[in-house]
Each structure stands twice: as C-alpha cells, then as structure tokens.
Design a protein that fits this description.
alpha+beta; Multidrug efflux transporter AcrB transmembrane fold; Alpha-Beta Plaits; 2 domains; four-stranded antiparallel sheet; 11 helices; 6 strands; 10% strand; disordered C terminus
C-alpha cells in the first residue's frame, strides 16, 4: 500500500485565511525592505571587489596575532573569519592599487608571510579570488538585470498562456518570494555573492513551477464550473493540487537539508537561501498568487470572453473567405 501524506478528497478552506495571509506577506515584505535598507547586504568579493584567501592551518592560529601580522604588510584593512572549523580562516583584503598586478603582489605577500610564520607544512591555501572594482560593478548590474528580466519574462509568459490577471499575479508572487529571500539573507548576514544570485534565480524557477501548476488547474476549473464562485473554486483547485505541492516541497527540502548539513561552509549560504525560497514559494503559490486572482476579479467570465472573441474572429474570417 502506497503512503499518502495527503488523503484523497481533501477539503481545506484555504481562502478562509486569505486576508490574514496577505497581511502577513505585506508585513514580511516591509520587514525585508527595512532590513536591507538598515543592515544592508554582506556583499562578497564578487560584488565588492578585493581579495579573498582561504587558508587552512595545521594548528589553530591566534586570530589577534594573525591580524596584527597581516596589518603590518601595508595592504589596508584585513578581515579574518573562521569557516568550517577554527583552523580554516578566510582572509579578506581590500582592493589594491595597481590593478591586477597589485592584487597579485598582495596575494604573494600574504602567502610569503604566512608560510614564513607557520612553516610550509603548517599552512595551506585552499582558494584565492581577486576581483577588480570595474568587474564587481559589472557583476552587480548583470545580476540585477538577470533577476529582473527573468521575473518579467515569466510574467509575460504567464500572461500569454493564461490572461493578464494571471501574469500580474505571477509577477507579484515572484517579487514577494525574491524580496523575502533577500530579507532573510540580510537578517542572517549571509554573504551575498554569485552563488546567492543563483539561489534567487532557482527560487524564481521553483515558485513559477508551483504557481503555473495551480493556475493551469484554476483555468480548467473556471471552464468546468462556470457557476461556481471564485473562492470555493480556488479552494477546490488548491486541494486538488495539494498532494503534488506538498510532495515536491518535501522532497526538495529533504535534499537541501542534507546539503545544508553535509555540504560544507562554501555551500551553506546558498543552500539556506534555497531552503527558505522553497518554503516561501510554496506559501506564495497558495496564499499570494491565488488570492490575488480574487482581488483582480477573475471568474468564469475571464476565459468565456476570450473564447467568445476567438469564435467571433473565426466567424468573421469564415465570412470573408466565403
């Protein structure tokens, strides 16, 4: 016998809480915008420019001593952060003068200093990244453009696939999801780098998939139950697709949780953002995208008018050809 998390003929009145859910969504949006405005985003090397060196030490280093040693090199402000253990240190240096040559010179100074102090076998260099100011500015613009165009393209697709109300509902739902994930990143101070941009784009795709499944069933039910009011019709639709929604969200969450626990420090921020994106996307497909259809007066007449217009055009074309 197959295990069923959602029983057949489920009849939950989701729209009963539509006003409360929309109010919660608005509050979370405001909180996310406030967090980004007040705390800002912890931009990584990709967007801020500078140098990142990840070093592994044989013995736990004294961070104060290490900081004093590196500050004495004349490379500007030095930031140290443990990651994945007290012997794994991320060293961040500000952008250096002299372009690429200046960056490489700074990296060489740090390598030579650490090797001389801790010995060749006492320190290993796992990763070195250098990003110039122009490149970082271009990356910020390209990342913002990619997210914006992805959301706009998806809204246009939904508009042509269904009706304009569905396109607006889908776009607002995607904006809600992206804003909440960015707010979560700002709240925890997670590093915002290209991996985080990938997490946001993946969240957009996941949320879209869930929303389109519900919207497609809404369209079918609008044509099937022409006399049913929109609220009970949305409840019927969400209950019909609930098993699929829960199973996909649960399976994705289990995979992401495993990656969050065992994937290492490098993937931790990306995975945490993705996990929140999955939960937020599931919530928004039910309690944001669907109630917005009520606010925009969607009903059986929405597709009925479209079908009548198409029939009228076909009839006129037939008369002209005849």
């Amino acid at each position: 016998m197959l295990l069923k998390l959602i029983p057949d003929n489920t009849n939950i009145n989701f729209m009963r809480w539509k006003n409360i859910s929309l109010a919660i969504s608005v509050l979370l949006l405001v909180a996310s915008v406030a967090l980004v405005a007040v705390r800002g985003l912890n931009f990584g090397i990709d967007f801020k420019g500078g140098i990142l060196i990840e070093a592994g030490f044989e013995k736990k280093p004294d961070l104060d001593e290490l900081r004093d040693e590196l500050n004495g090199l004349g490379l500007g402000a030095v930031s140290l952060q443990e990651f994945g253990g007290d012997r794994q240190i991320a060293i961040r240096l500000q952008q250096q003068d002299g372009g690429e040559q200046g960056q490489q010179t700074a990296v060489a100074k740090v390598r030579d200093t650490l090797s001389a102090k801790y010995g060749e076998d006492g320190v290993s260099f796992r990763r070195v990244e250098t990003v110039g100011g122009k490149v970082s500015n271009d990356l910020i613009w390209d990342a913002s453009l990619a997210i914006g165009l992805a959301m706009l393209g998806i809204a246009i697709y939904i508009w042509f696939r269904f009706e304009w109300q569905f396109g607006v509902g889908g776009l607002l739902s995607l904006f809600h999801d992206v804003a909440l994930v960015i707010g979560f990143v700002a709240l925890l101070g997670l590093e915002f780098d290209l991996n985080m941009v990938a997490a946001l784009l993946t969240t957009v795709g996941y949320s879209l998939n869930d929303t389109v499944v519900i919207y497609d069933r809404v369209r079918e039910n609008l044509r099937k139950y022409r006399k049913m009011d929109i609220e009970p019709l949305l409840n019927l639709t969400i209950n019909e697709t609930l098993s699929r929604t829960i199973m996909v969200s649960l399976a994705t969450s289990v995979a992401l949780l495993a990656l969050l626990i065992f994937g290492g420090e490098v993937l931790r921020g990306f995975t945490a953002a993705m996990l929140v994106g999955v939960w937020v996307g599931t919530f928004s497909s039910i309690y944001v995208a669907s109630p917005l259809l009520i606010l925009m007066k969607v009903g059986p007449h929405t597709f009925l008018q479209t079908e009548e217009n198409k029939a009228g055009k076909a009839e006129q074309t037939g008369k002209v050809n005849g």
